[in-house]
Every structure is written in C-alpha cells, then in structure tokens.
Specification:
This protein is an alpha/beta fold. It contains six helices and five strands, in the order ααααβαββαββ. Strands 2-1-5-3-4 form a five-stranded mixed sheet, covered by helices on one side. α1 packs antiparallel against α3. The longest helix is centred in the middle third of the chain and has 77 residues. The radius of gyration is 54 Å and the shape is rod-shaped. The two termini are 62 Å apart.
Length: 281
C-alpha cells in the first residue's frame, strides 16, 4: 500500500469512491425500473378475463419430477404468467436481477474495503501531523536552550573582560612577592590582533609598575602560530638578568606563568634582554 502514502493517492481514492457511489445509484435505479415494469404487467394481467384452454389429443407421458422441483415449478409458472413473460424470458430476467444484485454486493464490499483503507490513511496522517507537531515543539525548545547557552556564554565573556586577567586578591600576592626584589627593563610582547593578549599585557604592565618596575613597555608582534600562556625570552641562559628569576616566581604565584618557568633563547636579542610573551589564555 505504498501508493496510499501521498496526498495525490488519497485524492484519487476519494474520486474512485465517488464513482462507486454513482454506479450503486444507477444499479438501484435499474432495479427500481424493473420492479415497476413487473408490477404494471401484473396489474394488466389481473384486468384481463380468464380464459380456459382445453387441449384434446393423445396423452403424452410426463417426465418424473422430484418433490422439490414439483413444488417449485407451479410457482415459477405462476410468476411468469403474472408478468406476461414466457418461461425463458422469466429465467433470463431472474438471472439478470441476480447478476445486478451480485454486482451491487461486490461494489458494496469493495466500497467497504476502500472506506477502511481511507480511514487507515487518515489515521496515519493524523499520527504524522502529531509527530510533526512534537518535532516542531522539540526544535523550539532546542532553539530556546541554544539561545540561553549563547546568552550565558556572552555574559561569562563579559564578566571575564570586566574582571580582567589578574584578580584584585592576586595583585596583592604579586606585590608582596616583589617587595624588596631587584627590578630592571622588561619588554612585554602581545600577539597582534588578539584582544585578550593585549589586555593581559596592559594589566601586567600596570601591576609591575605599581610594584616598583619603572622600565616596562608593551608592544605587539606577529607570530606564525598563536602562543599559549606566558613565557620568557632571553638572549641566552648565561646572559639572563638576575631579576628574571624573581619575576618568574611572582608571575607563578598569581598563576600567570607555570613553574618551572618556560624560557626561550633568541640570540638576535641583546645580552641581558628579558621579554615576556603573552599568548592566549
């Protein structure tokens, strides 16, 4: 029954049911005309005077009939005489009526089957509509949840931006760790085009200046790949300035740099150079 799974098939089935109804009406009309004709024939025969026919001649032996045939034959002859038809015509008429009745029964049976199939299709369509409504409701719920998640993420990002990379309580820890420690020039390098890197670099510069560092500058540079976290850059291990170790400990206390500190050498820098690269968080 795959052809019932589309709207066009349902429309064609409804058209077939309409034609079945028309055929049934026509057959009923034919039966009504035949009944009217037989009734008129019976009335015309009742109005005629009775005639007696006497047949003289030699007696001819009759075939023997069964009791059922003997009971049925007078009734059939009486029906034929009342209708004004001979026995052959009456038999053909009865066969035609039985044929029409059989056709009516068949049409009614097929119509019943078609109605059952139509009801089944309607039930399936109702189930599909309900399922579609459920899916739409779930889609709306998922869309609402996604919007809420996006709003929460945006709020979290705004909170992180407002709070900054270095909380107030961490600043106090850094100030205590740097008290009495040597200072020197430091080059803080932010990743060009990365907002959080630039913001963290500027916060670190302000914090170091409050801790007594006077030679701290921030600049941006291009990198082949975006670095993660913070690491130090020196000319070489031998020329690393003495204040680099104290600064690394202070940055580790406020969770900006891991311990042991990550240090990269760059012979293109001057001896005694100290840079801090601020990558993504």
């Amino acid at each position: 029954m795959n052809w019932f799974n589309s709207l066009d098939s349902v429309v064609r089935l409804q058209q077939i049911l309409s034609w079945v109804g028309v055929v049934s009406a026509l057959l009923a009309a034919v039966c009504g005309v035949l009944a009217y004709y037989l009734n008129n024939q019976a009335r015309s025969l009742q109005a005629r005077p009775a005639e007696e026919q006497v047949t003289e001649g030699a007696e001819t032996p009759l075939p023997q009939l069964s009791q059922e045939e003997a009971d049925q034959q007078p009734q059939e002859e009486a029906d034929a005489e009342e209708a004004g038809l001979d026995e052959g015509e009456a038999a053909r008429l009865r066969e035609r009526i039985e044929e029409l009745q059989s056709q009516l029964e068949q049409v009614g049976f097929e119509a019943g089957q078609d109605r059952a199939e139509v009801e089944q299709i309607r039930s399936q369509l109702a189930g599909l509509r309900q399922r579609n409504a459920d899916l739409e409701a779930r889609a709306e719920e998922a869309e609402g949840a996604a919007e809420q998640a996006q709003a929460a993420l945006a709020a979290l990002q705004r909170a992180e931006e407002e709070q900054g990379a270095i909380p107030d309580d961490e600043e106090e820890k850094f100030m205590r760790a740097m008290a009495g420690k040597p200072t020197g020039p430091v080059d803080i390098v932010a990743v060009a085009g990365l907002d959080d890197s630039r913001r963290t670099a500027e916060e670190l510069q302000a914090l170091m200046e409050r801790a007594g560092w006077r030679q701290v500058q921030v600049r941006e540079a291009q990198f082949q790949g975006v670095p993660e976290g913070l690491y130090m850059v020196v000319h070489s291990q031998e020329t690393m300035p003495e204040y680099a170790a104290a600064l690394a400990i202070g940055l580790a206390i406020i969770d900006l740099m891991p311990m042991p500190a990550r240090v990269k050498t760059n012979e293109g820098k001057e001896p005694g150079y100290l840079g801090i690269v601020v990558g993504s968080r």
